[in-house]
Design a protein that fits this description.
single chain; 543 residues; mainly beta; Immunoglobulin-like; globular
């Protein structure tokens, strides 16, 4: 604990798993440049070297162009195996070609593999011992005379256990900032984690709290220093997204003593993007939102536009869900039909769907008891008339919608609290289709049980995280559910991981506020720790 082109298909088999986990990320093959031709002067006599052997260590030109291709990632669990489908462009290499694998971590071995004569594909099988070294390692698939394929192999521990390659115990705890809290996090392509939240728990005197951590859990000090100077000194950050292509980081929340919706765009090094709004920070004016507002969800697009969803405070103290889009310079996009809910509501989740549509989730407060809602908007901001009633459907009466996540098949899972318990509530809907309910569950009924976070999982599963338990056993939990709502019993202990301090079992030591999944499948939860060793935390788990 820190206190401070190949087309590759992966088949994973583990003695501890009931199913398979796949992690396939495409990567274009690296072309090997040909030697540039040298023009010859017609008056110059050049010796004929076509029959001479190549220099020592060099391959003939045709062979130098041969290339093995493989996906960027491979995944194997301790005690399991993975089959990697590899491909070769022979470019003159003939006959049977043996494949060797270099860079394997301790406890991982490669079974003999060859490209049969004239074949362009083969399978490379890696086997991990029960005590194989966990973590990510760069490996290469090699054939004599061909350029190798480079990929990252992730060796994982048991599903649903803390990833001990992350700060040695799977948990980063920042005791240097005891009153701070993380509300959301995202994982970059390089494994670095950006976590956002608030100083002083968002109370007066606090401000935005934006930190980045390396893949091993160590803080990115240079980024953190730059970001601290770029973000608002009052309010809370509640959502974070990455701009595709540029690597810029977009953080959204509320700023000011009376919070108003705010968006900050940072350069990859953490410094403010001076080309966005006012020196990198957009705060909605008090005329537009006189009683305050905040963003709870954000999506950044490759063209520089930013989409936000959140809640605007109304004169009577209630709230109204809002969705808006901003141009790359931070001004409101006039081509986008700003959405304002016609009824009392709060929007807490924002998810892009296939095509240009997107899905907004939250709580409908105009009904009693409150209910979870799903809103589907078209790319221009207008409600999708083919979905529900003017683009909106109401689900799970009695449940509030705190967070949401997109499953691999396009369904959306909404997590929250059934206020009638209070108890955990989780709902899954066909967001890409007609919005039909897949399942809804209210679970438990202990002491203020509630889900506060959601994330996508492998094989169309999803995660729900929050806090609950009775008066004598208060815990933070992370669950993984199958598409039908049943717990995925291959994860943790029968589908549920409980995070608590055994020394104080009757206290909510860990308060979970957000969850996210990285490209490699590892899932993270963030929040704050109360009582002793207080401060924001990040925990990372094996998928």
């Amino acid at each position: 604990m820190r206190k401070v082109g190949l087309t590759v298909s992966l088949l994973v088999v583990s003695a501890s798993l009931a199913g398979a986990f796949t992690a396939c990320v495409g990567d274009d093959p690296v072309a090997v440049p040909q030697d540039a031709a040298t023009p010859q002067d017609a008056a110059t006599t050049t010796p004929d070297t076509s029959t001479l052997p190549p220099p020592d260590g060099a391959a003939p030109d045709a062979q130098a162009q041969a290339q093995i291709t493989a996906d960027a990632r491979a995944f194997v669990r301790q005690g399991g195996m993975v089959e990697i489908d590899a491909k070769i462009e022979r470019k003159g290499l003939a006959g049977e070609l043996a494949v060797t694998v270099t860079g394997l971590p301790k406890g991982v071995t490669a079974q003999p593999a060859v490209f049969a004569a004239a074949a362009s594909t083969t399978k490379v099988t890696l086997v991990a011992a029960n005590d194989a070294t966990v973590g990510e390692a760069p490996i290469k698939l090699e054939v004599s005379g061909a350029a190798p394929a480079s990929l990252n192999l992730l060796v994982a521990g048991p599903s649903g256990t803390l990833d001990t390659t992350f700060d040695n115990d799977g948990l980063v705890l920042v005791t240097a900032d005891p009153t701070a809290v993380f509300y959301a996090a995202r994982v970059q392509n390089d494994g670095k984690i950006v976590a956002v939240g608030a100083q002083n728990g968002g109370a007066a005197g606090g401000g935005w709290y934006v930190k980045r951590y390396n893949a091993d859990g160590s803080p990115d000090a240079a980024f953190n220093t730059a970001a601290a100077a770029a973000v608002p000194g009052q309010g809370m950050a509640r959502a974070v997204a990455f701009e595709p292509g540029s690597g810029k980081i977009v953080v959204a929340g509320g700023a000011g003593t009376t919070e108003r919706l705010a968006v900050v765009r940072l350069n990859p090094n953490g410094a403010a993007d001076q080309g966005f709004a006012n020196a990198g920070t957009l705060i909605v004016d008090s005329v537009t939102h006189p009683n305050g507002s905040r963003a709870n969800g954000v999506v950044a697009f490759g063209n520089g536009t930013v989409l936000v969803a959140g809640t605007r405070t109304e004169g009577g103290g209630g709230g109204t869900g809002i969705v808006d889009r901003y141009l790359p310079n931070g001004t409101r996009d006039p081509a986008f039909a700003s959405y304002v809910s016609p009824t009392a509501s709060a929007f807490t989740g924002l998810l892009p769907l296939a095509g240009s549509a997107f899905f907004v989730t939250g709580t409908e407060a105009s009904v009693s008891p409150p209910a979870q809602i799903g809103l589907r908007l078209l790319g221009n901001g207008t409600p999708d008339a083919t979905f529900g009633n003017q683009g909106k459907r109401i689900y799970a009466s009695g449940c509030r919608g705190a967070a949401s996540a997109l499953a691999t098949n396009g369904d959306v899972v909404i997590t929250g609290q059934d206020v009638r318990g209070p108890s955990y509530c989780v709902t899954r809907v066909a967001a890409q289709g007609n919005g039909d309910l897949v399942y809804t569950q209210s679970i438990g009924g202990g002491n203020s049980e509630q889900f506060t976070a959601a994330a996508s999982g492998p094989g169309n599963t999803t995660y729900a995280a929050g806090n609950g338990g009775g008066s004598q056993d208060k815990v933070a939990i992370l669950e993984r559910r199958q598409p039908n709502g049943n717990l995925d019993r291959t994860f943790a202990s029968a589908g549920t991981y409980e995070l608590e301090d055994p020394a104080t079992p009757d206290t909510y030591i860990y308060s979970i506020q957000g969850a996210t999944t990285g490209d490699d499948g590892r899932v993270l939860i963030v929040g704050s720790r109360a009582s002793s060793n207080r401060g924001p935390f990040i925990a990372r788990f094996w998928p």
